[in-house]
């Protein structure tokens, strides 16, 4: 049987579940189309004069790569005229982007990290685009959308996904009814389903963490990693492998496909200091991971339950294999109990 295209998958999902509204289908197709264009730009590399930095910093104080801005503009332009959105938010923008008055407005809020792992671009490694879809609160109808309207826990997302620009260009998506992978068929420009519903294989002894930041780890994280470093002679009685790609999208994709666990803990010495952003990195990935049978917490508590207090709020992240993630949380709670 020929692989389903993204369009046909969503139409059939709409018929089957009855919950996929046409405006949400249009939103996902629009984001997917923008990701095709981003993939094309990234693929040009030095030939397209898209590599390198702009010499500017984004709202996070991070050096902006040319492609960070190009991808951000592509996603804004693609999504603002369709009538499916009330507003957008991005890692690259300090505050929300309201839909211009000349366009109709819809019921959805779109958040995205246009290029995740952009420091990998100039050295030819995988990067990605992460997106999250919320519903604008009913209370917002008839008034201007505010940043406060975005402050919803991740469990309220109606969809999330990522594109990964690697050996293949892939789109991984959940509409809340399972996780599906689509591969970009460049010959016809279509996204074609190549895997799904994805389920995280249990028991893969592979952890992803930036070991250089061990001084920032809590005793619980240190205990968890030390045990795995001891391997089969230690309490795990198994040897573990380590991977760290510098791109959350690439690490999450590997975990969805072959299991394991990803950790980017908050800085234990400075409460509240973390690296990954809740709204457009941790939440969309946590929804995908849970939909694939895994778990996602901040070292203690479920990420999708966190009530955000700011658009660019950062959070510790532990996600992947359910048993591994629950072990980290158990160590974290044990450590709290001994304080
Ligand atoms: P470090 C990329 O900048 C990112 O936000 C994630 O994609 C990635 O997992 C992490 O930061 C890498 O952080 O400290 O290893 O550079």
From TrEMBL:
Gene3D superfamilies: 3.40.190.80, Fructose-1,6-Bisphosphatase, subunit A, domain 1
Any GO MF annotation of the entry: fructose 1,6-bisphosphate 1-phosphatase activity
Main location: cytoplasm
Keyword Acyltransferase: no
Pathway the protein takes part in: Carbohydrate biosynthesis
Name of this protein: Fructose-1,6-bisphosphatase class 1
Record InterPro entries: FBPase_C_dom, FBPase_class-1, FBPase_N, FBPtase
Catalytic function, reaction form: beta-D-fructose 1,6-bisphosphate + H2O = beta-D-fructose 6-phosphate + phosphate
Binding residues annotated for Mg(2+) 2, in chain numbering: 113, 116, 281
Swiss-Prot/TrEMBL cofactor(s): Mg(2+)
EC number(s) per entry: 3.1.3.11
Residue ranges occupied by any Fructose-1-6-bisphosphatase class 1 C-terminal domain in the UniProt entry: 201-331
Binding-site positions, Mg(2+) 1: 91, 113, 115
CDD domains attached to this UniProt entry: FBPase
Keywords: Carbohydrate metabolism, Cytoplasm, Hydrolase, Magnesium, Metal-binding
Family: Belongs to the FBPase class 1 family.
NCBIfam families listed in its UniProt record: PRK09293.1-3
Taxonomic classification: Bacteria, Pseudomonadati, Pseudomonadota, Alphaproteobacteria, Sphingomonadales
Compartment(s): Cytoplasm
């Amino acid at each position: 049987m020929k692989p389903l295209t993204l369009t046909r998958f969503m139409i059939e999902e709409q018929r089957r579940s009855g919950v996929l509204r046409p405006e949400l289908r249009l939103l996902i197709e629009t984001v997917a189309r923008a990701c095709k264009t981003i993939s094309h730009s990234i693929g040009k590399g030095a030939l397209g004069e898209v590599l390198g930095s702009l010499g500017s910093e984004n709202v996070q104080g991070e050096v902006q790569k040319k492609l960070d801005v190009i991808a951000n503009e592509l996603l804004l332009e693609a999504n603002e005229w369709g009538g499916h959105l009330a507003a957008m938010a991005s890692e690259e923008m300090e505050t929300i982007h309201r839909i211009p008055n000349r366009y109709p407005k819809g019921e959805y809020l779109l958040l995205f990290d246009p290029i995740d792992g952009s420091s990998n671009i100039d050295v030819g490694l995988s990067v990605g685009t992460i997106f999250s879809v919320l519903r604008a609160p009913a209370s917002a109808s008839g008034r201007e959308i505010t940043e406060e309207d975005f402050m919803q826990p991740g469990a309220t997302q109606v969809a999330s996904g990522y594109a990964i620009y690697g050996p293949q260009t892939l789109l991984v998506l959940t509409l809340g009814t399972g996780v599906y992978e689509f591969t970009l068929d460049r010959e016809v420009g279509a996204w074609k389903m190549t895997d799904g519903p994805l389920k995280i294989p249990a028991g893969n002894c592979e952890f992803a963490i930036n070991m250089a930041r061990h001084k920032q780890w809590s005793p619980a994280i240190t205990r968890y990693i030390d045990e795995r470093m001891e391997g089969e002679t230690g309490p795990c009685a198994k040897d573990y492998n380590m991977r760290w790609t510098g791109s959350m999208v690439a690490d999450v994709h590997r975990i969805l496909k072959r299991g394991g666990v990803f950790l980017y803990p908050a800085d234990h010495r400075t409460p509240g200091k973390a690296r990954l952003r809740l709204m457009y990195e941790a939440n969309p990935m946590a929804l995908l991971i849970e939909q694939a049978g895994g778990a996602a917490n901040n070292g203690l508590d479920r990420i999708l339950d966190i009530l955000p207090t700011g658009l660019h709020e950062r959070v510790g992240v532990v996600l992947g294999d359910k048993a591994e993630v629950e072990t980290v949380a158990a160590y974290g709670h044990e450590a709290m109990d001994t304080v």
